[in-house]
Design goal:
heterodimer; A: 151 residues; alpha+beta; 8-stranded antiparallel sheet; globular; B: 75 residues; mainly alpha; 7% strand
C-alpha cells in the first residue's frame, strides 16, 4: 500500500478528476474500487484531505463528499456550465474557481443574494465578461472554516 | 461570499442579516483570486495556500487588513 502522503495525492486526484469529468463527486467506495484500496483506507484519506482543507465530507457521513472546492457535490445557486457539462459551485468565488481549475470558458447562472434576480456571468477567452455586479464577503478570512458550508 | 447586482442590494442584505458591510470585490478581482487559488487544483502539487500565502494573495489584488488575515482575532 502506498505511503499516506502518496495515497492522499492519489485519492485527491481521483476525486477531482471524477468530479471534473462527470460533475458528481465519488464516494469513498467509488474511489476505493477505482484505486484497488479498501473503503476504510480511502475514508481515512478523505479525513486527512479534509484536515488539509481540500475536501469537505458530507455532515454525518464521512464516506461521502460535500465539497471538493471549488466543486459542490450538491446543487447550489451557482450553476457552472463548462463545455456543455453542468457543475455546481459552493459560492461565487468557487463559481469562477471551476473554469479556473479546468482552464476552460464557462457560463455561470447565479442570482442577486438579496433580490434573487438572475445574473449570468461568463468567462470567455480566459477572462470574465464585464457585468454590472459586485461581490461581498460577509465572513472574515479567520472564520471561513468555522462553518465552511455556510461560508 | 455572495453576488449582488449593486451596492444597494448589498446594503439591504447586510441590514437584513445584521452584519456590517465590507469592502466590495469586482469581477476582475474575483477572477484573479480564483485563478491564483484554484488554477492548479487538478494537479498532484495542489494544496490550499497557507496563512502567509493567503495574506500575500489578497494583498496582490488590493485586499489588505485583518479582515483578510486568517490569523487575525479581530477585524
Amino acid at each position: 500500500m502506498p505511503e499516506p502522503k502518496d495515497l492522499d495525492v492519489a485519492v485527491k486526484l481521483k476525486v477531482y478528476e471524477t468530479v471534473a469529468a462527470t460533475g458528481n463527486a465519488p464516494s469513498a467506495a467509488d474511489v476505493a474500487a477505482a484505486l484497488a484500496l479498501s473503503v476504510e483506507t480511502v475514508a481515512a484519506a478523505f479525513d486527512r484531505l479534509h484536515q488539509k482543507r481540500l475536501l469537505v465530507p458530507e455532515p454525518g457521513d464521512p464516506s461521502r463528499i460535500r465539497m471538493a472546492p471549488p466543486f459542490s457535490a450538491v446543487e447550489t445557486s451557482f450553476r457552472v456550465t463548462v463545455k456543455g457539462r453542468a457543475h455546481f459551485a459552493n459560492c461565487v468565488w468557487d463559481a469562477f474557481g471551476i473554469p479556473a481549475a479546468l482552464h476552460e470558458d464557462a457560463a455561470i447562472e447565479a442570482s442577486d443574494g438579496y433580490t434573487g434576480e438572475p445574473i449570468t456571468l461568463e468567462v470567455k477567452d480566459g477572462r470574465p465578461v464585464p457585468q454590472a455586479c459586485v461581490i461581498h464577503f460577509a465572513v472574515p478570512a479567520a472564520r471561513w472554516w468555522e462553518d465552511i458550508i455556510h461560508t | 461570499m455572495l453576488l449582488f447586482r449593486s451596492e444597494e442590494t448589498v446594503a439591504r442584505w447586510c441590514e437584513t442579516h445584521g452584519v456590517p458591510q465590507r469592502p466590495l470585490i469586482s469581477l476582475d478581482q474575483l477572477w484573479q483570486l480564483a485563478v491564483t487559488w484554484y488554477g492548479d487544483r487538478l494537479t498532484e502539487e495542489s494544496r490550499r495556500p497557507g496563512a502567509d500565502e493567503m495574506v500575500e494573495i489578497f494583498a496582490g489584488i488590493g485586499l489588505e487588513g485583518p479582515f483578510w488575515d486568517p490569523r487575525a482575532d479581530q477585524w
